[in-house]
Amino acid sequence: MTTQQIQKAELLNALHVPGTPLIVTNVWDAITAKIVSEAPGVTALATASHSVSNVRGLEDGGGLTVDEAIAAARIIIGAVDLPVSVDFEKGYAADAAGVARNVRRLVEEAGASGINLEDSIGAAKAPQYDIATAAARVSAARTGADAAGVPLVINARVDTLAGGGEWSEAVARANAYLDAGADVIFFLGLGDEDKVKRALDEVNGRVSVIGHPGAVPLARLAELGVSRVSFGPGTLGLTLAALQRSATQLTSLGDYPDDLGFPFSL
């Protein structure tokens, strides 16, 4: 691996600062990556597998093959100079050895600086792999990254609360994943400030969360000590809502939307 790839991964890791969270506006192709990368204050990017899949007419949760996922990541990463964290679903593999192989490929073939790795078995948030199996898959992702020679930032997702599970299990999973080599815990289901505080107190490492309307405000998440906020497929929804509003306005012979003249180019 090149020195630049290593430096990008190191930078991505350093950007996860409790209290000064990395804000990643999720992207899904070359043009969204480029446009977001040019926005003031943006220091890194993250993909959203849901969006990457849906814009290809596929369902999230295994709709893409590993080859398709790596190819999509390569296009996105190649369009920008910033570090990119790739939503790599469950590693596109049934076992830990497969996760290690696929993560190594993602780093070597696409140039990823980080990944999200899920702990649920199917497309839904439940059931999950048992804790030992899920931790072994995180460890395998670290092994694959190490084999590629890049300090990949592993953002290990805990789906327990989102799938209706118990708090104690969610925390146990988070800490097991950190022990297995994760750098950050992507803790789903922290729907209010008390849960965010509790997670920050009980997880033995950095915590990332998803932001959406009705969630804890971004400024408050920063004050509490969150290290990363992403928005998943919500940014695709934001884009599609704007497109639909504009289509409605144009179809009704309304004014040309100002954004119809937005300058863009690869």
TrEMBL record:
<dbReference type="GO" id="GO:0016829">
    <property type="term" value="F:lyase activity"/>
</dbReference>
<dbReference type="InterPro" id="IPR040442">
    <property type="entry name" value="Pyrv_kinase-like_dom_sf"/>
</dbReference>
<keyword id="KW-0456">Lyase</keyword>
<dbReference type="InterPro" id="IPR015813">
    <property type="entry name" value="Pyrv/PenolPyrv_kinase-like_dom"/>
</dbReference>
<protein>
    <submittedName>
        <fullName>Isocitrate lyase/phosphoenolpyruvate mutase family protein</fullName>
    </submittedName>
</protein>
<dbReference type="Pfam" id="PF13714">
    <property type="entry name" value="PEP_mutase"/>
</dbReference>
<dbReference type="InterPro" id="IPR039556">
    <property type="entry name" value="ICL/PEPM"/>
</dbReference>
